[in-house]
Design brief:
- Helices cover 29% and strands 33% of the residues.
- With 150 residues, it is α+β, with helices and mostly antiparallel strands.
- It has a single domain, classed as Hotdog Thioesterase (Thiol Ester Dehydrase, Chain A).
- The strands form 2 sheets. It has a 5-stranded antiparallel β-sheet. It has a two-stranded antiparallel ribbon with strand order 2-7.
- A hairpin with a 4-residue loop joins β5 (87-96) and β6.
- One of its GO terms (molecular function) is hydrolase activity.
- Keywords: Hydrolase.
- This is Acyl-CoA thioesterase.
Amino acid sequence: MYISEKEIEIRYAETDQMGVVYHANYLVWLEIGRTQLIKDLGFTYAGMEAQGFLSPVTDISIQYKAALRYGTKAIVKTWVESHGRLRTTYGYEVLHEDGTIAAKATSEHAVVKKESFRPVPLGKVDPEWDAKYKEVAREAAQDGVRNPTA
């Protein structure tokens, strides 16, 4: 199963008064991880937008496990958990440098036409991208992945 990894250096501006990463920054990091996964698989989200399509978040869930702090690094692991005709669910783990899980998350996305926001199957936008997502989602399902580092 393919899992993308992206290292994030935690900046002071991402922390709260206690020196702990502010919870909303995880959303930004998930997007960075998703973008890296797409790039690693050979595609670009910017290319999709240039064709007149967007992929908005339709659902997101984050479970915080262990605080991250300024001056350390986070590793964002991202994979395609499931991929259907109109929806793709990404899985994420945000890890401390030592591999301790800081957060687990999923985000669900649809592909829509930019001008109308009407859903469209990824297979109609980019058949190769759709086929790759089906392949990696099938591998994830075979591996029983919802928690790749457990």
